[in-house]
Amino acid sequence: MNEVDVEDAVFKALADPTRRALLDRLRERTGQTLGELCEPLRMTRQSATQHLGVLEAATLISTVRRGREKLHYLNPVPLWDIQERWIHRFERPRLRALGTIKERAERPRPVYRYVTYLETSPHQVWHALTDADLTARFWGHRNVSDWRPGSPWHHLPTDGHPGITGTVLDALPPHRLALTLPRPGPLPPAGAPEVTFEIKPYHEIVELTVTHTNLPEHDLATATAAWPGVCANLKSLLETGHALSRPPWEMHSGSPATEAPDTGGS
């Protein structure tokens, strides 16, 4: 076969997922018998023989007789030739960068979860999370909404800085509140981060679980530092009637905070 015929045969062979699976098996361990190739793929010997014949015709594999057995070996040369013709001419750094972007976009995004306990009632916790004046006291932001699923909610700093607007995903007072908590600026391709407050009563105390999902990796550290401080201020407010004398997030910055954290990154 000439070069064009060989290339056509290679592309035809690679178009079938079963043949690609056989090549993957040989990539993991070359020099396998027909029986060894069939067993994990749950394929009949006749079907495997036909597929291996196509791969051998495309020179993607070679065979060697050993007694009554035939050993199959992967031949990467045709794939290398295709790589040189179809990929090498392009800018490798650009392709590598695109591959990195794809890998990061498909990677599961970090999840942050924080649990605390308050000596109060579920209704008081719900009220504190949804009342604009109370959120201003322990969070440094006014949370404004009608708190119905699908409605917008506004997270507005008390110092006059621009706020953010998210969506109420779920509201089941006084047990569960789920919101989008978008970062300032355009939304990332994966969508806005989400935060869920779960309020569970246990006798005279309440377990509050804050779960922050769909976080960009560079926002995980911000969430890790911010949520314990916000929850500590909430706990102090509900148990003593006043928030902590100093915002807890100042401890992480090393200097007085000019703005309370919105826990949504920057």
UniProtKB/TrEMBL annotation:
Q: Is-annotated flag, keyword DNA-binding?
A: yes
Q: Which UniProt keywords apply?
A: DNA-binding
Among PROSITE patterns, the record links this protein to: HTH_ARSR_2
The family database entries (Gene3D superfamilies) matched by this protein are listed as:
3.30.530.20, Winged helix-like DNA-binding domain superfamily/Winged helix DNA-binding domain
Q: Name the InterPro entries for this protein.
A: ArsR-like_HTH, ASHA1/2-like_C, HTH_ArsR_DNA-bd_dom, START-like_dom_sf, WH-like_DNA-bd_sf, WH_DNA-bd_sf
Q: Which Pfam families match?
A: AHSA1, HTH_20
Establish whether keyword Cell inner membrane is in the entry.
no
Looking at the record, the residues that make up the HTH arsR-type domain are 1-94
Q: What are this entry's molecular-function GO terms?
A: DNA binding; DNA-binding transcription factor activity
- The organism sits in which domain of life? Bacteria
| Database matches in NCBIfam families | HTH_metalloreg
Give the similarity note.
Answer: Belongs to the AHA1 family.
Name this protein carries in UniProt:
DNA-binding transcriptional ArsR family regulator
Q: Which organism is it from?
A: Amycolatopsis sulphurea
